[in-house]
Amino acid sequence: MAGAGAAKSTGASRPVKAASCLRHRGPASRPRILAKPVSAATWGLAFFAVVLITVAFRFFRVGSVPVGLQYDEAFNGLDASALLSRPLTHWPIFFPDNFGREPLFVYLLAATQALLGPGVMPMHLLSATIGTLLTPAVAWLAWEMAPSLRLDGKRLALWAAIAPLTLLWVQILSRYATRTLPLALLETLMWAALWRGWRTRRRCWWVTSGALAGLSFYTYLAVRLLPAVFMVMLLAAIVWNRAELRRRLPDMGAWLLVAALVAAPLAMYLLAHPASLFTRVSQVSILKSGPLAIARNVLAVLGMVFIAGDRDIRNNIPGRPALDGIASIWFAVGLAWSLWQLRRPAYLFLLTWAAVMLAPAMLSNNAPSFQRAVGALPPLLLLMAVGLERGVSWAERTRPTLATTALGLALLSLAASAGITWHAFYDVWAGNESLFYARDAGLLELTEALKRELAAAAPSATTYLSPSGWDHPTVRYGLLGVLPQNELLHFDGSRCVRIPDGAARYLLRSADDPRGPRLLSTYLPDSSSHVLVVAPDGRPWAVELDQPAHGRVVFPEMTPLLTGLDDGISLIGYWLSSNQLRPGDRLYVRLFWRANHTPAREYTAFIHLLATAPGKGAMQVAGADAPPGNGSCGTSTWLPGETVIDEFELTVPGSLSPGYTYSLATGFYTANDGRRLHVPGSDDDTIPLARLPLAQDQP
Q: What is the pLDDT of residues 369-385, one digit of tens each?
């Protein structure tokens, strides 16, 4: 803003009341604008039409596109829902979970859920609203900067308003319920208010900009680089227009004071919790990878506009450049013109802003990441608008008779680019089968199916989810207000299964675990099953298996061995994959536990292969220790009367002496102190299972 391209002021500005912010006061002199003027009525109608088209882009099929609810979105939804049960004064200033998150988006989401309730639709509506507001925000900034850019304000603002329609990047972020896009919106509003304050000499705009600057620090961690843009422009002002800068020092002081006051609560928290300040940055940073890795990232980020963009299907059609062929031409014109005009502060500002806010993507892994580069989105849109205005104004100046034709061709090119974006988003990206997996659509469909069943009948059956996902934010958020989390039990069917005493409902992700459904069908012969979720390739992704209240429960492979332990646990039998030992082979041991009541503690199970020499004590030669189901069937979650079938894998040692007797023993212990759970009648608190001879073909 060094001089802001306007003529130098002849004196210090007078104090102005806050209400005067609404009155326009232009600079002392205006630069010459080389463009055909647009009437206010024409501009108003055109801008209104652009806003309507933007609303259509952002809100069409907002409840169904994209599919699913991605992990981070659901995490935000859970935090927002939790806020509604707290007094406003107890809302956290920072959310340390999920790698740490600034709070503003979660606050907005909480307000949205308070009005509309939880669900995918409110989350998408909020993101779409933010994406829609970006259009007038960028247009306002273009309007304020136009005199300093020596371009027509009305037309530049119109080009800037249309530009977001041509970017798939903007459209996808407008359906992504995370904290990234609010950064682009707030930084745009902040700079627009600051340019207006400089241009009109109204201190209230400086104060407004300062408040927005402080508020932007509550959006996304990339904002921490934004002060670097201000510092570069401050240095430019010192070099180019020191006298004017001196007269603006009181305004700048007000801006800095307000920004600091607004950002202070978050700043104090981060200073008191430095891990929250640096943890996520250190996790994704490539600074320690060396200059070659940094150079590759820089090239990847610089090439994301024209060559290859984000490869993550959640953010982009993998590898698609940020701009299509049409939009990239206008951007290239704007970039070239800005470089040519670099000595003008307004152009220096645009290029500095873009370069600084691309740095987070350049210095982190998975480059180029559109989410980490979101701070550079507004200046890229403005550079495209500059290219459009320079191209049209050049045609008007060189061929006045073709002025209307040039304007029409520019609008047609933008309409074509917007059409490409529409097709890319609603047809190509939304129809990509990979989104089903990347956005956890299967888990969301599973919860929706369960909600329909629970709404149709009382939840009398015990409900299980296998092999994973019970604690996934998408599942937890999808069942908010329907099924408390502690009523959705779980197990990993590849390691264990659970069978309650009574009716049961199993939600089985068969695509990830074919073993669990197979075992349950064997153990529960009276059960019935049906497909719950179908994957994009047409194969079952999840099935539901229902066991009636008085259905049969059989364990055909089990060798009965009823043994009681303390804390309400009993072993009712076991199964071995082989009744003899073969050195180097794998031996599978299946243990059938029953809970007489819910155990009070979490226990770790063990299975030991023991070797006993004649006249000597037993020694362990192999073994395995793990909580039941490798933690997915924790003992403190067992229900009274429930049977838990847990499986272990042992590797038989490569050399076994035939002079020993080999046997298996099992039991439980507490992991923190290694103390075994008492087995009545056992001296060492173990349960002997079976003796295993060596295979006959062994020497």
A: 999 999 999 999 999 99
Residues 478 and 476: their CA atoms lie apart, in Å, by 6
Where is the domain boundary, 434, 451, 477? Answer: 434
**Pair (459, 407) in one structural domain:** no
575 and 628 in contact (C-beta within 8 Å)?
no
Q: Which residue among 434, 459, 481 closes a domain?
A: 434
CA dist., res. 595 & res. 677, Å (int): 14
Could you tell me if residue 514 is inside a domain? Answer: yes
* Predicted local confidence at residue 698, as pLDDT: 54
Got the DSSP string for 52-98? HHHHHHHHTTTTTSS-S--HHHHHHHHHHHHHTTS-GGG--S-B-ST
pTM of the model: 0.88
Q: 698 in a domain, yes or no?
A: no
Let me know whether 635 and 605 are in one domain.
yes
Per residue in 603-621, pLDDT tens? 999 999 999 887 777 888 8
Q: What is the model's pLDDT at position 428?
A: 97
Half-sphere exposure of 520 (CA within 13 A, CB side): 34
Q: Is 119 exposed, middle or buried (0-12, 13-18, 19+ CB in 10 A)?
A: middle
642: amino acid identity, one letter: E
Residues 298, 167: one domain? yes
Q: Are 497 and 523 in contact (CB under 8 A)?
A: yes
- The continuous run of DSSP H or E covering 497 comes out as strand 496-499
At residue 27, the pLDDT reads 43
Q: What confidence score (pLDDT) does residue 330 get?
A: 96
Helix (H), strand (E) at residue 230: helix 226-240
State which residues form the domain around 240. 60-434
**Pair 274, 355 in one domain:** yes
- If asked whether residues 530 and 596 sit together in one domain, one would say no
Is residue 40 one of the residues assigned to a domain?
A: no
Low-confidence ranges of the chain (pLDDT < 50): 3-19, 24-34
pLDDT at position 564: 94
